[in-house]
Amino acid sequence: MINLNCAAYVADKLCFTNAGALFFRINDEDVKFRHAGIVCALYKGIDKTYIIDAKELNSDIISNVDESLAFLKRHLNISYKIETLQRENILELPEDALREAVVNAVCHRNYFEKGARVTVEIFDDRVEITNPGGVCKGITSKNFGKISLTRNSVIASMLYRIDYIEQMGTGILRMKNAAKNANVAEPKFDLHDFFKATFLRNQAFEQVTPQVRELLKIFKGEMNRTEIQENLNLSDRENLRLNYIQPALKQGFIELVYPDRPNHPQQKYRLTKIGKGLS
After folding, report:
1. Are 39 and 56 in contact (CB under 8 A)?
2. Quick one: CA dihedral 241, 245, 249, 254, positive or negative?
3. In 3D, which of 44, 190, 173 has the Cα closest to residue 121?
4. C-alpha–C-alpha distance, residues 177 and 174, integer Å
5. Which end of the chain has fewer CB atoms surrounding its CB within 10 Å, N or C?
6. 273: helix, coil or strand?
7. CA 136 to CA 77: how far, in whole Å?
8. DSSP letter at 215?
């Protein structure tokens, strides 16, 4: 334990270090970080108004990770594939990517931030996995996912020893590849004060037409039809309406800025949360 930096002598008494207490505690009395657990929540709708189920996890790091995955698997949809004598259960979001996101959250969170916990939240349209502290100093939007820096080196070392992470900064890429292989939208990442990984639910890429994908890519803030048409280099306004705007509205990727005035001459459009995830 001493060699692992998980224990040390204090006044001739062998004690857990902070990292050791997080990894090996039997209950939450064993560690001074009473905020170090994970909060899981299932909501009705796309905001936090109505909570359907919630669970606070206050065990050791590995138990918390595993129980978070169990919570996700319990509440996400499952489809069934039968090609052999045995049925294959397919989670709507790739389990490998979700596990990577939860492990990343507990590995890189700021444990000295006592006002917040790691959260695993399920909405009708997405899953959000958030940890306090943002990304480490030195990581920017340009090098994010390409270099490896850790805030908690002992925790990272312990997770590496049990094959929960790799030390090569490949976690973000593995999440993206898992999503691609499962034919779901790539996770999106927020790098600010809280680091957040967002996985869109029930949105297979084959359901999005090439025209709608093109439309989502050119969106900047709020745009009217003329601005959209110019950015898409389209000459046919009816083509824009039928094959771009109407399908995107119907699928919930864009929305009206003035919903009570759908035919207003100055009407504009903006991306929804789902649309932002695909843009």
Report:
1. yes
2. negative
3. 44
4. 5
5. N
6. helix
7. 34
8. H
Locate tokens 């100093």: which residue?
Answer: 137
Tokens 């920017």 sit on residue? 140
The closest of 178, 195, 100, 218 to 144, measured between CA atoms, is: 195
Contact criterion met (CB below 8 Å) for 52 and 44? yes
DSSP annotation of 185 reads: P
| CA–CA dist 30, 191 (Å, integer) | 31
pLDDT digits (tens, 9 = 90+) for 10-45: 888 988 888 888 888 755 555 466 788 899 999 988
N-terminal to C-terminal alpha carbon distance within the chain: 47
120 pLDDT tier (thresholds 50, 70, 90): very high
Structure token digits, residue 24: 């090996």
**Distance between CA 29 and CA 21 in Å, rounded?**
10
pTM: 0.69
Encode pLDDT of 176-206 as tens digits: 888 888 878 888 888 777 888 999 886 544 5
- Name the β-bridge partners of 119: 39, 130
Helix (H) or strand (E) holding 75: helix 61-75
The pLDDT tens digits of the residues spanning 229-276 come to: 999 999 888 999 889 998 888 877 889 988 877 777 788 999 987 787
Number of H helices, E strands in the chain: 10, 12
Residue 278: name the closest of 205, 197, 225, 175 by CA.
205
Q: How far is the C-alpha of 217 from the C-alpha of 254, rounded, in Å?
A: 12
Residue with tokens 């929540």: 41
Distance CA 167, CA 165 (A): 7
Q: Are 247 and 211 in contact (CB under 8 A)?
A: yes
Q: Which amino acid is at 104?
A: N
What's the rounded Cα separation, in Å, for the pair 239 and 40? 44
